[in-house]
């Protein structure tokens, strides 16, 4: 290990090689460590997108907080949405530290969101019109999120890995909460069952899209390769999607629901699931901020942000007064 | 106190406590995702969950007293059957929680601060209640209540002593909440019997404590108000309510009533 003085004297190229050595030795990179801009920017993109997705993800579920059918469900969904906001907070702090050297902060994250420069997960652009949607979101969207977050637990960036560890612990409660919501409806009246099946039909394509396209062919570009090189992630989009099928298709069928894709089948020979691809053009549209609920949700977040501008201003004043 | 002969004042009191917390937690939770910053969103949500949890405890006590299922009590009663104070049912601002909510943070801070001051006084009195399940519940709630109150006191102080705009907004909010806050401080038409059964101390004593404590908070930020809190829109303890409650109850029970055959959710 080089000491600081000698490290500073290295050329950029040598620094980069040293950095890649660390990555290849599976060392964890910390916030104050030297890192190439390319790595920093990949991290900022990944983590601020993840963080803002948690926060935007609170909105479709928030819709069901007051409407949750019983006192018990009201409490449970409030706790879950709070966790998601907490995840957003944790992640944005990690992103903020990375952005500091670039002279950027949380305000920049918010304004990038409002101008659609900062993207968030496709699933949070979708409508959630019934209580069945709340159940499917908590069960399958959280289930899918757990898979991609678990995959990144071992990420090369230390602060992100630690945030993910805490997030994954809480997510396991969300999955249980989701399963409990789904089971109650699946064991319920015909109407409740139908509500659940309708929600699954609505969410299926979005769930497949959640993992991202297989390769560049589908959408023209992907950051997966770079993220794998830097060991930010360890699996490809398709690997995760296949794991999702393996875990959830049997469960979906077991509780009497139908997967809304007649072509879906497991091929023993190639050991893979065959399925109908979602419309990747639509995916591109959705994540660019042209999904069914994109504008509504961004507007909701923006107007609430603007309405409380005076509060943040007052708090800024309190802080400087204390100093 | 005997449950048999004091049943009416006992249940009336618990409905007041339950409905106050229920509707107050609902109004708080409408802020979810919309608070001034993310850290506050998380903290505020904890408070709302505690408060909803308190409402649940009260509804369960009512249920044990033979009033019906806790979920039915919270989701099926008509507006006129609710006993919460009117100020607590008021919307956070114009708009809906999903559609252009124009929520007023100053109003929220003041309403929560005043409510939590009053609630803590009420809980302390309930610790000595002649009805043991109520005294027991009050003891459990008080630890949480301490943190809630602290939270709103900090907000109050910060916003009252920062920018001119914040001060203006806060003063406007104080006047607005004050006009109806009397509704929280009253025990309603059965007050005397509640007191003589030893369920809670009398209204005047509780009210005096409230005024003293608020006065103290006002003094710290150089603010004063001449008159006493009023109840200009009516007495919620008597089943008098506004459209805002009607609307909220419709939202709160939308799913629960959507399938009358359903036995579980
Ligand atoms: Fe999350
Ligand atoms: Fe989650």
From TrEMBL, chain A:
Domain of life where this protein originates: Bacteria
InterPro entries (UniProt xref): Aromatic_CoA_ox/epox, Ferritin-like, Ferritin-like_SF, PaaA, PaaA_PaaC
Annotated SUPFAM superfamilies: Ferritin-like (SSF47240)
Molecular-function GO term, any one: phenylacetyl-CoA 1,2-epoxidase activity
TM helices/strands, residue ranges: none
One GO process term, biological-process aspect: phenylacetate catabolic process
Example of a GO cellular component annotation carried by this entry: cytosol
Protein name per the record: Ring-1,2-phenylacetyl-CoA epoxidase subunit PaaA
From TrEMBL, chain B:
Annotated signal peptide: none
GO CC list: cytosol
Gene3D superfamilies cross-referenced by the UniProt entry: 1.20.1260.10
Name of the protein in its database record: Ring-1,2-phenylacetyl-CoA epoxidase subunit PaaC
Organism phylogeny: Bacteria, Bacillati, Bacillota, Bacilli, Bacillales
UniProt xrefs under PANTHER family: 1,2-PHENYLACETYL-COA EPOXIDASE, SUBUNIT C, PHENYLACETIC ACID DEGRADATION PROTEIN PAA
One GO BP: phenylacetate catabolic process
């Amino acid at each position: 290990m080089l000491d600081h003085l000698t490290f500073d004297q290295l050329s950029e190229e040598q620094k980069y090689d040293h950095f890649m050595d660390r990555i290849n030795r599976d060392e964890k990179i910390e916030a104050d460590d030297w890192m190439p801009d390319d790595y920093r920017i990949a991290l900022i993109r990944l983590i601020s997108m993840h963080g803002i997705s948690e926060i935007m993800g609170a909105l479709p579920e928030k819709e069901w907080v007051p409407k949750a059918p019983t006192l018990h469900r009201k409490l449970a969904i409030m706790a879950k949405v709070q966790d998601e906001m907490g995840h957003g907070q944790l992640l944005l702090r990690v992103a903020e530290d990375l952005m500091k050297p670039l002279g950027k902060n949380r305000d920049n994250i918010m304004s990038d969101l409002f101008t659609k420069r900062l993207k968030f997960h496709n699933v949070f652009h979708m409508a959630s019109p019934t209580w069945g949607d709340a159940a499917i979101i908590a069960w399958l969207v959280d289930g899918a999120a757990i898979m991609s977050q678990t995959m990144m637990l071992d990420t090369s960036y230390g602060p992100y890995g630690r945030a993910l560890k805490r997030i994954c612990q809480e997510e396991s409660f969300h999955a249980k909460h989701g399963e409990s919501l789904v089971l109650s409806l699946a064991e319920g009246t015909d109407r409740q069952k139908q509500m659940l099946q309708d929600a699954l039909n609505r969410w299926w394509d979005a769930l497949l899209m959640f993992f991202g396209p297989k390769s560049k062919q589908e959408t023209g570009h992907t950051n997966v390769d770079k993220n794998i090189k830097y060991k930010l992630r360890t699996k490809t989009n398709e690997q995760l999607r296949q794991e999702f099928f393996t875990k959830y298709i049997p469960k979906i069928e077991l509780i009497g629901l139908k997967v809304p894709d007649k072509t879906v089948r497991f091929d023993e020979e190639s050991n893979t699931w065959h399925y109908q691809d979602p419309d990747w053009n639509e995916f591109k549209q959705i994540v660019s901020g042209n999904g069914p609920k994109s504008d509504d949700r961004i507007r909701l977040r923006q107007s609430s942000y603007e309405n409380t501008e005076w509060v943040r201003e007052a708090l800024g004043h309190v802080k400087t007064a204390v100093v | 106190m005997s449950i048999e002969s004091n049943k009416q004042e006992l249940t009336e009191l618990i409905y007041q406590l339950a409905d106050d917390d229920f509707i107050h937690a609902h109004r708080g939770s409408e802020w979810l995702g919309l608070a001034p910053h993310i850290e506050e969103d998380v903290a505020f949500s904890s408070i709302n969950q505690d408060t909803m949890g308190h409402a649940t405890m009260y509804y369960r006590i009512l249920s044990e007293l033979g009033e019906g299922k806790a979920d039915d009590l919270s989701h099926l009663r008509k507006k006129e059957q609710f006993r919460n104070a009117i100020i607590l049912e008021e919307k956070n601002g114009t708009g809906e929680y999903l559609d252009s909510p124009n929520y007023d943070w100053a109003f929220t801070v003041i309403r929560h601060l005043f409510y939590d001051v009053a609630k803590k006084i009420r809980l302390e009195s309930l610790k000595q209640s002649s009805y043991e399940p109520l005294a027991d519940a009050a003891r459990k709630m008080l630890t949480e209540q301490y943190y809630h109150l602290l939270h709103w006191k900090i907000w109050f102080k910060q916003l009252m002593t920062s920018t001119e705009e914040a001060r203006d907004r806060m003063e406007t909010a104080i006047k607005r909440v004050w006009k109806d806050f009397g509704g929280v401080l009253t025990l309603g038409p059965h007050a005397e019997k509640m007191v003589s059964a030893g369920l809670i101390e009398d209204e005047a004593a509780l009210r005096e404590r409230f005024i003293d404590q608020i006065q103290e908070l006002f003094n710290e930020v150089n603010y004063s108000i001449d008159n006493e809190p009023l109840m200009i829109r009516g007495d919620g303890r008597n089943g008098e309510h506004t459209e805002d409650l009607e609307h909220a109850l419709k939202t709160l029970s939308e799913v629960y009533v959507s399938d009358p055959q359903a036995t579980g959710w």
